[in-house]
Input
Amino acid sequence: MTHHVILGAGPAGVIAAETIRKLSAQDSITIIGDEPEPSYSRMAIPYLLMGNIDEAGTYLRKSPTHFADLKINVRVGHVKQVQAATKTIVLDNGETILFDTLLVATGSRPVTPPIPGIKSDGVHRCWTLADARAIAALAQPGARVLQLGAGFIGCIIMEALAARGVKLSVVEMGDRMVPRMMGPTAGGMIRDWCETKNVEVFTSTKVESIEPGKPLNVKLSNGKTVQADLVISAAGVRPAIGYLENSGITCLLGVLTDEHLQSNVPGIYAAGDCAEALDKVSGKMIVSAIQPNAAEQARIAGMNMVAFARGQLPKASLKGVTQINVLDTLGLISSSFGDWEGVPGGEHVELTDKPAGRHLSLQFKDDVLVGCNSVGWTEHVGVMRGLVEGQIKLGEWADTLKQDPTRLMEAYLAAAQGQGDWSGAQDARRR
Output
């Protein structure tokens, strides 16, 4: 009997396992996760901290017998090593597991910055349900909370903390908030917005040290020392693939995959935050750590794992990863798509209305929109995504948008209709 093993019990692992079971009633399927709780969504943790849901509300599948009903074996274990040549997984307790096909779907791990005192009591990441419990115990109304990092994940955590009524300070080493998603103008507008919501924001600032105690004394590079009852480290994430060292599987930032999500080793695949796949818009291999990508990659990998086990050609191909970020920061909606910083030889137009809290930045290569940023332009989010992902040739409309970027909807409908993408245009219009 074929044995499919999936490393990682998050969204990618779960969807891949379910896909395999749909296509094969008899094959053996094992998911190995490293947390004791049922499979859950990390993206739901802020809503847990807000009190909108309980822990069960974060679970990916609500029935406690879901995996047993599908005859999917889910077990808790820490992977120490993968040996591609012998198709063997070694757990940290010395146990070995053999596989016929393997999916690497272990996601990301938070980066721990090299700051003296970063492991002090009262300093927590916000990544697991265990982290969420620790934060909830300390982030009581009026508590002084310092958050290290104002990237995408950091801004989502900030929303949850503000909802808990804490006194919040945020430290970001970049010169603006969300620096990997927003340009200087947009990032500055998000900072200004946060400060109107009584969140203290320090940009171009590093945490130099954390002195243990109650309260914690946090020394900043701007010369200030901030007292905190809780420090949250949200300094970014990296693919969790350390156990693949010397495995024979080729990795750069993530596991390098082809259009079938297969690695350099036949029968071994990757999906989600630890997979490095082709972005057809930019032509680059990237890790795009968002859940829609994880779900689609897992579906495709699962289909191809079954085909591989049967000696068949791959059944599905990845059309490309999606570079999309839509962020709600204390009620201010911002978005980023594609090559938002532009491409060599490209053109750029932007429109800013700071009093209205609106900013729009468009990046072109010839007559194609290759990337964009927006703050406060919620009506254009679907259109921007459609234009960038669809690589729609705008023709004369490109010149129109360079003069008046607010005419995105008209441009999309005209260009998409002309290129036979009316269904996509209708979808964008509904958004």
In short: Residues 49 and 75 are 27 Å apart (CA to CA). The mean pLDDT is 92. The radius of gyration is 23 Å.
